[in-house]
Amino acid sequence: MNNKEPDMVNHPPHYKNHASGVECIDITEHMTFCLGNAIKYLWRSSEKGKEIEDLKKAVWYINREIERLQKCISDQNPTLLTHSNLDLMNSKN
Q1: Is 61 exposed, middle or buried (0-12, 13-18, 19+ CB in 10 A)?
Q2: b/e code 30-60 from CB counts within 10 Å (16+ = b)
Q3: Contact between 33 and 80 (Cβ < 8 Å)
Q4: Would you list the DSSP string of the chain?
Q5: What is the distance of C-alpha 52 from the center of its chain?
Q6: One digit per residue, pLDDT tens: the chain, 93 residues?
Q7: What is the CA radius of gyration of the chain?
Q8: Which of 20, 45, 52, 62 has the fewest Cβ atoms nearer than 10 Å?
Q9: Nearest C-alpha neighbor of 54 from the set 70, 66, 69, 43
């Protein structure tokens, strides 16, 4: 029998409830903030009993990301459009 208490800060058991066994952050840390949050709300939408609210939150973050991308295009700043630029910024930290 394992009496070790779960690590509720770094790896809470409910973070691996997804059928894949993958933690959401392992996917979303490679995305923009808004896309990552949208995925997080989609990923966990059925876990808290507030599925419709979480789906609406995901839509809110997706719409915000669309606005960001449209601004980049209108400002002619394509360097902010891609996820590969995020990888570059993250590798410098």
Answers
A1: buried
A2: ebbebbbbbbbbbbbbeeeeeeeebeebbee
A3: no
A4: ---PPP-TTT--GGGG-STT---HHHHHTTS-HHHHHHHHHHHTTTTSS-HHHHHHHHHHHHHHHHHHHHHHHHTT-GGGS-HHHHHHHHHH-
A5: 18
A6: 457 888 889 888 878 888 888 999 999 999 999 999 999 999 988 888 899 999 999 999 999 999 999 998 888 876 666 655 555 544 544
A7: 17
A8: 52
A9: 43
18, two tokens: 């997804």
For the record, the structure tokens of 10 come out as 């770094």
Contact by Cβ (8 Å): 38, 58: yes
SS3 77: coil
Tokens describing residue 54: 């979480």
What is d(CA 26, CA 48) in angstroms, rounded to the nearest whole number? 20
